[in-house]
Amino acid sequence: MNSPAASGSPGAEQRRRQLPADVSGFVGRRAELAWLADLLDGGRLVTVAGPGGVGKTRLALRAAAGARWDEDTCLVELTGLTDPELLPDTVALRLGLQRAAAASRLDALLSDLRRRRLLLILDTCEHLTAACAEFAAVVLRETTDVRILATSRQPLHVPGEQVLRLGPLPVPDTDQASAGVDWGVATRSGDAVELFAQRAAAAVTGFTLSAADLPHVIRLCRRLDGIPLAIELAAVRVRALPVAELAARVDAGLAAGTGSRRGIVGRHQTVQAAIEWSYGLCTDAERAVWRRLSVFAGTFDPAIARDVAAGGGIPAGQAGEVITGLVDKSVVLPAGPGRYRLLDSVRAYGADRLAEAGESSEYRLRHLTRYLSLVSEFSHRLMADGQPGRLDQLRAEHTDIRGALEFGLGDGRAGPGGTRESGDTGDTGAEAARSAARLAAGLFPYWIMSGSIREGMRWQDKVLDRFAGPSRERASALANRALLGTAAGVPEAVGQASESVALAARLADERTHARAYLALQFALTTAGRCTEALEAAKQARWRLEALGSDHALRTLDMQQAFTYAFLRNFDTAIEHCQRVLCGLSPGERWLRGNAHVVSAFAYYQQPGRRDECASAATAALRATQEIGYLVGQAYALEVIAWLAADAGRCQRAAWLLGAAQTLWERTGGRLSGSAVLEDHHQRSAATAVGALGRARYAELHAAGAARPLAQIAALAIAGADVLPELSVARPADEASGWPDNEVLTVREREIAVLVARGLSNREIAERLVISKRTVDAHVNHIFAKLGLSSRVQLTNWLRDRAPTRLSDALPPVARAL
Q1: Mean pLDDT score, 232-246
Q2: Which residues have a Cβ under 8 Å from the Cβ of 574 and sit 6 or more positions away?
Q3: Is 317 exposed, middle or buried, given 0-12, 13-18 or 19+ CB atoms closer than 10 A?
Q4: Which of 173, 299, 457, 470 is most exposed by smallest CB count within 10 Å?
Q5: How far is CA 505 from the centre of its chain?
Q6: Which residues 6+ apart lie within 8 Å of 367 measured at CB?
Q7: Are 404 and 439 in contact (CB under 8 A)?
Q8: Which are the contacts of 695, defined by CB distance < 8 A and separation ≥ 6?
Q9: Residue 529 burial (CB count, 10 A)
Q10: For residues 422 and 111, which has the higher predicted lDDT (pLDDT)?
């Protein structure tokens, strides 16, 4: 989505910093880092290959942190992905994209990648080698400025691939240490010992490695084959054991785990033995929780983990304390603010122990049930304040939501890696399938709001496969599949909604019957069968009223407004939109955005109501942007572009239409395939082409498509006609603290700093003795110039780029205030 010039923008710098921080420090690997940097400079596909626990991911992230200034970076973690067909969707999700049409989801992703300079990191490819290889080959063939850095236990074997085989950390010579060589020199010459010393010091305040300890640490590191994961697991034990005793126990523990095969033990077995030794030193409660946490496919929230891991003699209150103990032992690792994770090897070991204990199905089901509870709460509070935050929470849990659905909609028995246990029963599988079907149904608003429409359709299809006979689950899945399909513009939506209506009536399932009519009404409207849609709306309304389903009734009002707008009954359409908006909580964004979009359509098609149309379209863009609702943003940008073309502001129209087209390519057919709306689009494009010429129009259209969406939205809201020039950011000027090519004016700098200090626009106006409207305009221009969309983003950007103290960044006049 970014051109080469764009990637030096503040937005690009923020995306670079979205790589996970190295919270424990990076040790050694100087030669490997230099080698990897050379490989990345000379090739477009580089794979870091090596055994588990050797540090492939950490090396890749370290190399990515030093990537070119003119490209973005994106980390795609594949550990929790088990379905190869979802690989393009997973990459798209990390890039903020999604595609609804199943046949062209990869095409849409490639369309975006062709516009980027990007270092794409595919982490942990070994369980999806064929899919990753095929994906990498296509990306390399179809793009010119995308590089791929993969980590895997084996190469991908793609033409042009360059492989860095990562081995263990070096260990200094034991004889030299015994002969009295300075231990500091020995430590610096052996990265494995340096790693042990650093991790031990992190575990025990004041720990230092003495000369007497050195031979024991060297022996320990050699015994662990210099494998970082094994060394880190051992190092935290200095809390409880002197170094000499720790080394002896490691030696004895590994010998017990590997028999007499010391000379031929592979490094994978060494890691396994080290993990087994660490597991054996845990308390019974810690071992139980370790096993149970293995059901999490991705990073996890400690509150959710506590609920899943409790039980079986471990009260919920104690589970949190046990997890904290596992964090102290480096079994559970921090993974960003308020989240934790298990390394792949540690998770796999726990999953094996869970299966051995006959607990896989029980705790996989607990995991599924916990996410069902989370999604049910999301659906129940869908219109309440805090909607963006709850949506972000589900996005953070996306990997584990997938894992829960895969478990329930498979056979209800498979654990991580496909392990099974003899104690599984058909009842467990049936319960898991029903729960997964409910989870997939409850996720409908999430799939729409997050832009994951195609993936949502895929899960509904899996429910339909699992429940082939007449059932409530099948009726519900048909209704949800129709709603998702209508949003994506697929032709079979009307038929699926009709089938749902008939099946729900046969089963006397009133709730699903009402929802099926809701789906049918929407599908008929987008198919242009508006008279039939109004009849379906009547059937839906009295059923929903009988059920007291307030949210569904508001959704129906919004859908009916769309129908009336198509029928050119504009006043009734606007009346229905106002009904939707009336009583919504201030924090609701989805229905609010949709209602403003439909209002904008209705206003646009009436003479003399262009100001009302512009106001509604801008309100729609603000609301939908806050939750990342791509379809809503696309509709809003279209209407704003039409208004610009009608007003003769054809440069603005061209880049707005380009930005909207990018969103349509990600989310489905343009304007849901509506012929009426498509006519407005074509007329506006023709107007712009006529005024600008085809070549200039194409240039501006492509420029709009290439800019970050946040910047486009800010420019649209600010009323900009011209896209600002983009330049590669340079380090800040030491005297002022601001980049020497900064595009903000002196007044904008003043206002930016006051925003960062938490002042409202009205308070800023009072301080600077200007009108609030002027401050509003300045803030919008600041967002547009910097490619930002919120006050929080501006504050973070200023702290990163301006002096440490925000007051120092103020020009003298503002500082005096």
Answers
A1: 84
A2: 561, 599, 602, 603
A3: exposed
A4: 470
A5: 39
A6: 295, 296, 308, 400, 403, 404, 407
A7: yes
A8: none
A9: 15
A10: 111
Q: Are 802 and 753 in contact (CB under 8 A)?
A: yes
HSE of 159, CA atoms in CB hemisphere, 13 A: 5
Q: What is the distance between the alpha carbons of residues 540 and 553, in angstroms, rounded to a whole number?
A: 9
Task: Please tell me the least confidently modeled range out of 234-238, 375-379, 436-440, 571-575.
Answer: 234-238
**Among 492, 460, 488, which residue's Cα sits nearest to residue 476?**
460
Mean pLDDT on 722-741 = 50
- CA dist 84 to 129, 133, 135, Å? 9, 11, 10
Distance from C-alpha of 678 to C-alpha of 672, rounded to nearest angstrom = 9
Radius of gyration of the chain (CA): 29
593 pLDDT exceeds 70?
yes
Amino acid at 619: A
Phi-psi region of 363 (alpha: psi -120 to 50; beta: other; left: phi over 0): alpha
Question: CA 677: distance to chain centroid?
Answer: 32
The confidence score (pLDDT) of residue 536 equals: 97
Q: Helix or strand or coil: residue 101?
A: coil
Give me the pLDDT at residue 18, please. 56
Between vectors from CA 105 to CA 100 and to CA 110, what angle results, nearest 5°?
A: 135
Task: Report the phi/psi class of residue 568: left, alpha or beta, with left for phi > 0 and alpha for psi in -120 to 50.
Answer: left
Question: Residue 780's pLDDT band (boundaries 50, 70, 90)?
Answer: confident
Secondary structure class of 332 (helix, strand, coil): strand
| Side chain identity at residue 408, one-letter code | G
| Ramachandran angles phi, psi of 627, nearest 5° | -110, 10
DSSP-H helix ranges across 282-386: 284-293, 302-309, 316-328, 344-356, 360-380
pLDDT at residue number 22: 63
Tens digits of per-residue pLDDT, 133-158?
Answer: 999 999 999 999 999 999 998 899 99
Q: pTM for the whole thing?
A: 0.74
Q: How much of the chain is in helix, strand and coil states, percent to nearest 5?
A: 65, 5, 30
Look at residues 318, 179, 156, 166 and name the one whose alpha carbon lies nearest to residue 229.
166
Instruction: Encode pLDDT of 104-115 as tens digits.
Output: 578 878 888 888
Max Cα-Cα span within the chain: 94
What is the pLDDT, as a whole number, of residue 298? 86
Does residue 398 carry a pLDDT above 50? yes
pLDDT of residue 810: 44
Distance (Å, whole) CA 151 – CA 57? 6
**What's the pLDDT at 812?**
40
What tens digit of pLDDT does each residue of 324-382 get? 888 887 788 888 788 998 877 788 889 999 999 999 999 999 999 999 999 999 999 98
Spell out the residues 6+ positions from residue 382 whose beta carbon is closer than 8 angstroms to its own. 445, 551, 588, 590
Nearest Cα neighbor of 601 from 625, 629, 633, 566 is 566
Count Cβ atoms below 10 Å from residue 750 Cβ, excluding itself: 22
Residues 89, 105 contacting (CB under 8 angstroms): yes
Angle, helix 360-380 to helix 344-356, in steps of 10 degrees: 120
Predicted pLDDT of residue 730 = 40
Which H or E run includes 341?
A: strand 340-342
- C-alpha closest to that of 266 among 173, 353, 167, 342: 167
* Distances 382 to 379, 390, 589, 590 between C-alpha atoms, Å: 5, 9, 10, 9
**Residue 425: CA count within 13 A, CB half-sphere:** 4
- CB burial string 688-722: b at 16+ within 10 A, e below: bbebbeeeebeebbbbbbbbbbbbbbbbbbbbbee
What's the pLDDT score for residue 137? 94
The pLDDT score that the predictor gives to residue 206 is: 80
Helix (H) or strand (E) holding 11: helix 10-16
Average pLDDT of the chain is 82
